[in-house]
Amino acid sequence: MALPKRSYDVLVVGAGGSGLRAALELSKSGVNVAVVSKVFPTRSHTVAAQGGIGASLSNMGEDHWLWHMYDTVKGSDYLGDQDAIEFMCREAAEVVYELEHMGMPFDRNQDGTIYQRAFGGHTANFGEKPVQRSCCAADRTGHAMLHTLYQRNLALNTYFYIEWMAIDLIMDTQGACVGVLAMEMETGRYMILNAKSIILATGGSGRIFRSTTNAYINTGDGMGMCARSGIPLEDMEFWQFHPTGVSGAGVLITEGVRGEGGILLNADGERFMERYAPTLKDLAPRDFVSRSMDQEIKEGRGCGPNKDYVFLKLSHLGEETIMKRLPSIREIAIRFANVDPIKDPVPVVPTIHYQMGGIPVDIHGRVVSCDSDGRDVPVHGLYAVGECSCVSVHGANRLGTNSLLDLVIFGRSTARHVAKFVSSLPDIFPDLSPSAGEEAVDRVETLRSRSSGEGVHDVLSQIQSVMQDHCAVFRKGELLKDGVIKIMELADKVNNIFINDKSTVFNTALVEALELQNMIEVAKATMVSAEARCESRGAHARQDYPDRDDGNWMKHSLYFSNTGRLTYKPVRSRPLSVDSFMPKPRVF
User: Fold this and answer.
1) Residue 436 and residue 193: Cα distance in Å, rounded?
2) Does 111 have pLDDT greater than 70?
3) What pTM did the predictor assign?
4) Which of 131, 544, 538, 117 is nearest to 354 (CA)?
5) Inter-residue contact 18 to 385 (CB < 8 Å)
6) How many Cβ atoms sit within 10 Å of the Cβ of residue 499?
7) What positions carry a catalytic annotation?
8) How many angstroms separate the CA atoms of 274 and 254, rounded?
9) I want to staple 139 with a disulfide (CB 3.0 to 4.6 A). Which of 8, 50, 259, 332 is the partner?
10) What is the DSSP letter of 530?
11) Is the link from the previous residue into 76 a cis peptide, with omega within 30 of 0?
12) Model confidence over 508-519: pLDDT tens digits?
């Protein structure tokens, strides 16, 4: 029996910052667009972003987009594609002013300009000293951005499918993406959403780790859909540990705390980052600070009864600054760490925060597979933006504030490319075979009907433990090899999960089971890619290969889940209009 169908020029899957920015641009251009989101749009994970969005506005001192580009290339440990990085940094000021004109409530200086704070890895004059580049709305920048973009979409009557879960891509016989099978959570009914173009904006997948700053909805849905469709995942070995997650809870303490002058202390009361990064100190890039913290703990200088965390001190900033610039951080510290940062330091540990890898895309946001020679082959009709994508502007390590920037830069530019693409197509929708979507429905119904097997939460807990224990801040060859074996065994268990709830109305157990099937695809790609990369670069730190190896490993990894194949393609080191930044040792 044919499934019900609705057709749109463009379908956006995900309603976070990148999805809403893309939908807004498409609605402005008159394209018939719909957005699918498994949560209410303002509950998307962008709402949790705290510290700011990076742009060289020069409001707090001299700055330049080329310095921003240099910092981003260096921060990426030279694995970032320099054409995409140049594009992002050049466009940054324009998109920030655009958000300002939309009504986003940025903090202000006395002269009315946007207030900017310092952030890790951002410098003036090619690494000479820290620079204030982060445009912020207190410590709720993502919250302000998400609400602003959602309101603007409502004003343009963008259509939303709220609390609908995208289950799988629908591909035609030529390998083009022609739609998505989605399920309405409220009723359990299925629908084919047919489109000339699909933009995946489904966010990250930090829930594959036990300790993470990510929301429960960050389950890698877009990456799971692509992996099942034969599309590779790129650079999945690179996961950013944020230096300051609340110890024992994982809740994020923004880098903006250190940008405002907060400092890290060990058990001796020493500001230890002065030893590791004499120039930038506590504002070195996140991978660098995380490894330094881990080293302090390993060498016995951790704080607390178990010496398993360090302190983040901000009491010296004063109550007025904390309440004005960091009000949410004080609330988080009181609620999750049981300390008032106005008086006492906050216990913090490195915590999984962001994936640098994802669905491979070109600078226009087009999803690309690759041929046997490592050349990009676009997947017709399919695009990806935001954290689920890998363009790659972050390479092996992302600088703080570049995430929100990535969302709006490539959300906007991809939408403009998509608008031209769909306008060039005939005024008819792609053909669907009579059996379109049936394979995905069968997968869900098989899961729903199974009466015994593995428990979803038991398997998820095992995945999280394996990832945390075998693929953490510091990695070793034997641990990674063992991790690959264990993750593949868990993949077999995922194929045999069952749920007790057989209902159709708001079956959250079914949603969690489908999310688990996406998460295992991300976990497999991460572990296999990490085990194979025999060097240390950015967030991927191998104790058995402590040095960066540009001769052998200056390349992007591509993991094909359906065949288990791991291949590579070159880094794009040629910018659009300036000279390349050549690799050199990262010192701060």
Assistant:
1) 11
2) yes
3) 0.95
4) 538
5) yes
6) 22
7) 286
8) 20
9) 50
10) H
11) no
12) 999 999 999 999
